[in-house]
């Protein structure tokens, strides 16, 4: 697997278990790319939904993907603090053009005070039936919900106090050097 390079602009593609496209982020700037971790940033990026609807992201966001974890994390920089949106998903792959992963419906929203909510459990159960998620996937996802909650509580990885701010500073440096 090719590793995305710092400063490279790529897309992010989210799929569902049945192979259908779910959502596409048009442009993300790579801040760090290794075999195991990809960190990127997007700001006012065009997002296309599976039904063709489009919208623009509202604020800068740091994206975190790990090849060993069944989740990815988006840290959104808002005026009142950092909000995190965590997608339970397959580990990412990078095909040279886009980061790709399967979205498994369950999400965790984390607020600036580090409180959090598990979201979309009904959607997960519905899609689990409709798309016949194997039991092994269900077990993996449940373990990764616990792993993610542990990281949130411990303020580790992307939840560490300066993680999002430091990577956003790196993004602004890369963008200013492009001018």
TrEMBL record:
InterPro entries: DUF402, FomD-like_sf, Ntdp-like, SA1684
Residues annotated for Mg(2+) 1 binding in this entry: 87, 103, 107
Transmembrane segments: none
Binding site for Mg(2+) 2: 105, 107, 120, 123
Superkingdom per UniProt: Bacteria
Secretion signal span: none
Chemical reaction(s) catalysed: a ribonucleoside 5'-diphosphate + H2O = a ribonucleoside 5'-phosphate + phosphate + H(+); a ribonucleoside 5'-triphosphate + H2O = a ribonucleoside 5'-diphosphate + phosphate + H(+)
Single annotated GO MF: magnesium ion binding
Keyword Hydrolase included in the entry's annotation: yes
Active site: 23
All residue ranges annotated as the DUF402 domain in the record: 18-156
Cofactors demanded by this protein: Mg(2+)
The entry's keywords: Hydrolase, Magnesium, Metal-binding
Enzyme Commission number, as recorded: 3.6.1.15, 3.6.1.6
Family statement drawn from the similarity comment of this UniProt entry: Belongs to the Ntdp family.
PANTHER family: PTHR39159, UPF0374 PROTEIN YGAC (PTHR39159:SF1)
Physiological role: Has nucleoside phosphatase activity towards nucleoside triphosphates and nucleoside diphosphates.
Protein name, entry field: Nucleoside triphosphate/diphosphate phosphatase
Protein's organism: Pradoshia eiseniae
